[in-house]
Specification:
This protein is of the alpha+beta class. About 20% of the residues lie in helices and about 40% in strands. It is globular and about 55 Å long. Keywords: Hydrolase. It is an enzyme of class 3 (hydrolase).
């Protein structure tokens, strides 16, 4: 049951692909369209009292959203932790001496294999930031007390699901080792792009 008997590629775009699978169900074979994604890494950067939030334009919604620093796992051979380090540097101009893993999030499992690993970064210090491009060139950075970030979620001011999950996980303080296995990390799109998937640590 739930075995794929046939699969076809419907769309192959820059950061997503769409495939149609024929899947054996309890009483029949059904077709399911799946959005393949590289996955992403996000960071709750915490200075002891406040967290770093960024506000950037999201074209799919046509508005700016408050979010955590985050980015795609689209560099072949790059671990999720190294991607998180890169995104923290690129989006905030910070580096962290201490890293922990807060949680893994399946962002839309009814239609996509996208998953995000959310890290907690502490012991922060400034580092040279690369020149931003596209939406990042218009990005706003704000330092917000963690309790206020929770209130922003409850007031509907933060609606990005990754940010919501990361903020509440950080508030709970349940941190796992940063190198914990990332079993949810999507692999199909990366394998399609580089032929083998590289090292998807």
């Amino acid at each position: 049951m739930y075995e794929v008997t046939e699969s076809s590629l419907l769309l192959d775009a820059s950061i997503v692909a769409v495939r149609r699978d024929a899947v054996t169900m309890p009483r029949r074979i059904a077709h399911r369209d799946v959005v393949e994604h590289f996955g992403s890494a996000a960071v709750v950067a915490h200075d002891g009292e406040r967290i770093a939030l960024i506000r950037q334009y999201r074209h799919a919604l046509g508005r700016r959203l408050w979010e955590l620093p985050a980015g795609l796992l689209d560099v072949p051979g790059e671990s999720a932790l190294d991607a998180a380090r890169r995104e923290l540097r690129e989006e905030t101009g910070l580096q962290a001496r201490t890293w922990g893993m807060l949680l893994d999030l399946a962002t839309s499992p009814g239609m996509s294999d996208e998953a995000t690993r959310i890290y907690l970064a502490t012991d922060l210090s400034p580092v040279e930031r690369p020149e931003p491009e596209d939406e990042e060139a218009d990005m706003e950075l704000a330092w917000v007390p963690l309790d206020e970030a929770k209130r922003m979620v409850l007031r509907g001011e933060i609606v990005n699901s990754i940010a919501v999950a990361g903020i509440f996980a950080a508030a709970e303080g349940a941190v796992r080792p940063a190198e914990s296995p990332f079993d949810l990390r999507p692999r199909a799109l990366a394998r399609r792009r580089d032929g083998a998937g590289g090292n998807l640590a």
